[in-house]
Amino acid sequence: MADIINTAQIPNKQEEYTELLKDILFIRANNSKPKALVRTYGCQQNVADSEKIKGMLEKMGCSFTEVPEEADIIIFNTCAVREHAEDRVFGNVGALKACKRKKPSLLIGLCGCMMEQKHIADKIYKSFPYVGLVFGTHTLHKFPELIYNAVTTGKRIVERGNDDGNIYEGLPIHRDGSFKGWLPIMYGCDNFCSYCIVPYVRGRERSRKPSVILDEAKKMVSAGYKEITLLGQNVNSYGKGLEEKTSFAELLKNVSDIDGDFYVRFMTSHPKDASKELIDTIAANEKICNHIHLPFQSGSDRILSQMNRRYNKERYLEIVNYAKSKIPDLSLTSDVIVGFPGETYSDFQKTLELIKEVEFTSLFTFIYSPRVGTPAAKMDDPVPYEEKSKWFAELLKVQEEIAAKRCALMVGKKYRVLVEEMTKNNLLSARTQNNIIVEFEGKCELIGTFQYVEITQARNWILKGKLL
Question: Given this model, what pLDDT does residue 5 score?
Fold first, then answer.
């Protein structure tokens, strides 16, 4: 069981470093308020981590900028899930060389999942000498100390691989949104899917106490948040190792029972742990969105076994069909990997069959990307990338037709939506409870509020509507 350490209730040297840094960073910024840029790559868990980094920087006296040339501190929070994300990081870090040359006092730091891979951290250290700080996912709570050491010694600081299995509560948070917020309920992953690097860079599963989660959710509702998304690599296994036995379905119900007008979402849900109790809880609570992101990855039982997913197509469809029978207007989204090592076109056809049978609202689709250190990276992979790309295009065409049909069925219906932003075309962009985007005319004052719209037109991914 993970130890829960509340940094707000114990003598905390990180607070001492934070206080010292207020003056140090002010002086380094030519006696002005220092500016920080925090850029996030990857999943929502990384976004939640970056909000804590921003919270700690704010305590150090920093304001924030999106312009690298204005920044005194630049932090890239990295993702290791796919090669494309890593390539983007390397390219963007390379572009910072000019910023460092113009402002020698600039501190450039890299953190997150990529930094928990030794070969990546070594490459950063050797190839980018102007990067002054490298730290992994397990040392987030030591961020003030790491910054202090970097700016006072002038030495390059590297700290990674120090997973003590604990949960550090009480870290300050600077949330990016004012009405939509992320709420981590657990960290790490125990599944060890053969293609996935996450358990190696995020550590083993550990759950936050339900009382702490509920307290944070209540504060978010009191602050005016209209949508709270519960986060975990596999939320369905929440509660493992806790003294107070609580299932994810119970936690979900307790969050939705908080007084207030708000929606609850969650991600990500692993099919092997998806229970009927969870489905029944969603069906019985109006605040819980009727949208489930349930990654299936492949429709072939042979490939699922090779992936170490620990369910088969029959089990997946059993959960899906039960959910469809219980939740009106259910929206299902999923992840799919095309071209896993050893996958044949026959295996791929079974994936297409599953997509056609379930009729997903949308899919996050990826061509397999080998991750160093995972079992799949050592498997034979005889199918050339060009062939996998053809399969990928075929899958996209099938899903596009399904999405177009689903959206067409929504025309003429009325939906309650949460208004999220103004588009470049001066239209309001909102999201239905089942996670479909609707654009319509309206004033920007409506952003962050619930409204009712009637769907007037359907496109493949986005609906057009009118405000009621």
Answer: 55
Overall pTM surpassing 0.85 (yes/no):
yes
- Report the SS3 class of residue 120: helix
Q: Give the DSSP H/E element, type plus range, for residue 63.
A: strand 63-64
- Cβ-based neighbours of 20, under 8 Å, separated by 6 or more: 148
Say yes or no: 242 and 140 in one domain: no
**How many other β-carbons are positioned within 10 Å of the β-carbon of residue 315?**
16
d(CA 87, CA 63): 28
> 144 and 18 in contact (C-beta within 8 Å)?
yes
Same domain, 204 and 301: no
Contact in structure between 60 and 25 (CB atoms under 8 Å) = yes
* DSSP H or E run through 55: helix 44-59
Q: Within this chain, do residues 402 and 427 fall inside the same structural domain, yes or no?
A: no
Average pLDDT over residues 123-135: 95
- Cβ-contact 157, 149 below 8 angstroms: yes
- Give the helix ranges, DSSP H, for 234-369: 248-256, 276-284, 301-306, 313-326, 345-358
- Read off the pLDDT of residues 94-109 as tens digits, 9 standing for 90 and up: 999 999 999 999 999 9
* Segment (H or E) for 147: helix 143-153
166 in a domain, yes or no? no
